[in-house]
Amino acid sequence: xxxxxxxxxxxxxxxxxxxxxxxxxxxxxxxxxxxxxxxxxxxxxxxxxxxxxxxxxxxxxxxxxxxxxxxxxxxxxxxxxxxxxxxxxxxxxxxxxxxxxxxxxxxxxxxxxxxxxxxxxxxxxxxxxxxxxxxxxxxxxxxxxxxxxxxxxxxxxxxxxxxxxxxxxxxxxxxxxxxxxxxxxxxxxxxxxxxxxxxxxxxxxxxxxxxxxxxxxxxxxxxxxxxxxxxxxxxxxxxxxxxxxxxxxxxxxxxxxxxxxxxxxx
Length: 266
Ligand code: I24
Ligand code: DGL
Description:
alpha/beta, Rossmann fold, binds ligand I24, binds D-glutamic acid
């Protein structure tokens, strides 16, 4: 047993899609979350800058005595996960490897699509990970820079969203049987994406797959949180306005929670 919290990092609030899965799959685990909303989105930023910011988030989580760190952000995973994982002596999980292996398990034709932010797609990391595990796969990657802004402007169900998703995904329709949602925001567009891709296409939520791996790791190292110990409150930190963060988090997670502002060293 290990009653320390699990640390989550993200560029902002998108990582809450991973947190929601954690609360569903592993309700007894305690969470410390840091979202760098003051500097979000990471997607359009240079890799070197994202690496630097991610290290600041990691170092913050380490001061919170976490037993494990989860990169609840595809962009941060794409550019910084390997180097952070090498340097820490606690387990560090990203969302990309779980999403990649789930896609390989899901596909019947070997034609896998990946969608994500410009940085995630230009890093080519999903394709590399998939090819390393299963070289016979055919991977088609597509950057969808308009999707996260759609979610953030509350247009998830709008006709504009339908039009943008339809036009953006046109290059993949009919050409893949599995599509990886390689960005934390995309599960919110899932119904529209499914509709555009067709009912036979399997959508892979990298965040949900990552939480399955967290569960396996907790069991393997026997570091689950004891259910006998009273649950402490989850802690959420943001580099921007805590009220704005809280509004989104309470709405999304459907429960009250405490959010604190934190200043990261620049
Ligand atoms: N969804 C996201 N980011 C936002 C948003 C949103 N505003 C409305 N909705 N804003 O990401 C980002 C910038 N903010 C962040 C907080 O600090 C200030 C700056 C997706 C969220 C994934 C859980 C739409 C919205 C919402 C509640 C729940 C879900 C959702 F308001 F998509
Ligand atoms: N969290 C990011 C990701 O999953 C999306 C938002 C951003 O670009 O920062 O890629």
